[in-house]
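Many introductory courses stop at the sequence. We go one step further.
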Amino acid sequence: MIEEKYEKGIDTNRHNVKDILNLGSSFYITTNYDMALTDYRSENVSPYCLNDIEDIQDFIYENKQRVIHLHGHVDKPSTMIVTQGNYEEMYDNAGVKDILKSIMGNKKFLFIGFSFNDEYFKDLYEKIIKNIGGEHYIITPNLHVFESEDLSQHHLIPIGINVKEDNGVLDTQDYVKAIKTVLEQLL
């Protein structure tokens, strides 16, 4: 079903995949199951799940622009985290915690299109930050001052973007354009 809804070759003005890849990060972490980040890459590097990482230090510094699918991906259905039990098992796993702690301790995160409403990830993120400190960034639409303060308390530096809304629904094209503008400024 996910494969059926995912369209390859969509006009790049309708998404930010290329913009994200243009950042030239040494790797990308996504909670999405689809293969968009992998499909738009110029090199053919296999996507990873956390359990594919054998040596975290080698991984952090290999600079292959790998895509890590935190919740698994469609090409390996057995890796997909979909049920509450899957989430609990994954986020209670000491190995997962250690890998994310190592990554967050060595790199800055830029959250894009991530609402930070995933309670499992949020809880783990807060535990890691409490132990190792650090600050990370989040791009968020139509940021209110109270939301900004809340994000800051969680060691997230908010980058607010203005996005048109219609009855509380974000205008997708405007959202893509706003993210594109921010990412271009980071290059």
